[in-house]
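My main concern about presentation is that the manuscript never shows what a single data entry looks like. The format is easy to grasp once an entry is in front of the reader. For illustration, here is how one protein appears when written out as sequence plus structure tokens:
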Amino acid sequence: MQLLSFWFGSLFGSTWLISVNISWLILGHFNEILPTSEVRGGNFILSRATKLSKVVYSCSLMNLGVVDNIFTWFRRDQGNRNISKHFDRALSDFS
């Protein structure tokens, strides 16, 4: 949960501080993978996975996971090599 605070004013000169606890839900195509199991037929680049992992950890996020096929991006490379990666994910700070 993230605590956000807002200052509100009125026409009569009064001000209030309102604090709200909200949770983050981040959905999207991150164009990065985390563990090696999220790539098939392509290269796993540890330095890039480490950067995303640090962001997820520092923001106290958790990966909500997938229900069906984990691979969300596909390409046939030259030489008929199929590459599959898990780029789309949902991250949240729900506890």
The mean pLDDT is 79. The first helix runs from residue 46 to 58. The chain has one domain: 23-92.
